[in-house]
Amino acid sequence: MFYFLHVFSDHSILFNLFRYITVRSAGASITAFFLSLWLGPRCIAWLKRLRAVTNQERAYAETIHEHFKHKKDVPMMGGILIVASVVAATFLWGNLTNRFVWMMMGVMLWFGLVGFLDDWIKMRSKSSEGLSSLTKLLGQVLMGLAIGIYLYCDPTFDKWLYMPLLKKGVFYLGILFIPWVILVLTGASNALNLTDGLDGLAIGCTLFTTTAFALITYVTGHFDFAGYLAIPHIPEAGEVTVFCAALAGASAGFLWFNSYPAEVFMGDTGSLSLGGALGAIAVLTKKELVLVIVGGIFVWEALSVILQVASFKLWKKRIFLMSPFHHHLQRKGWPESKITVRLWIIAFILAIVGLSTLKVR
Fold this sequence. Notes:
By secondary structure, the protein is mostly helical. It contains 14 helices and two strands; from the N terminus they run αααααββααααααααα. 65% of the residues lie in helices and 1% in strands. The protein is globular and about 60 Å long. The mean pLDDT is 91.
């Protein structure tokens, strides 16, 4: 909305500032952060009145129930705060004539809705069982399918798959672009969902990942920078920087309340919406495999579950004491806060490594 103020630049040079993505990204980040801080206590109080809590116990995880018994009254569904802050800040500071901006807000709202329904059922049933896995997956796939078909039918959108460290595309996806988009969006949302198990862990890693992608989207949308780095130039992707900045600001604001000991959990409302948004950002910037590096913590958490299940089904043996991996560390006796901070450190390093792949080609 503020973007359109640049039409008054003839009256004052200050209005011309709203043309610049950097200025509006900073505004979106600050807006989302302070909006989160302002809405946070109100949102938490509302969720407590709603008794938006769920049973923390899992039938397959009796050994770690003691780690969560003190959290039984902490409200979930805090993802509502994240989604509201990001969408509001993006709406205020984004260029609303850019289709990618609307796509990002649509993806976040849709994945947030799927997560909200899951959380709502858990809350009403006072159990850990929400939407069935198939129903939840179907909701994720539908949005991935919609985005995939829309971009596939756009002859101007690049359908090549790019590898980090290589200048040119390695494989033309063609019709496979549609299932690829579905895989990226559903994979990212579920990976982040699996990471959301300790106070501040998922949202802290999201903060590093989105900050890195704010830089990636900016250089991808800038003709000179993209040319210098020899990466695909996607003009419309530059405006996604505003969304990434808003996401980073909202993540920092939510971390204020979600850091140990957490006052609120994001629930599936937050984890699915954040993961879906990250997947969409990667698709629109042609950096899907860079997301694997930058979001390495999410990838490893999901991979630990896959390896654990595969090992048990094939050989009746467990690789980890428990999966996802952060629970393995808990079983080894690591304090929750130490696990979180150390995984944050790794997430920060991975963000730097992922950014460096843009130059090393």
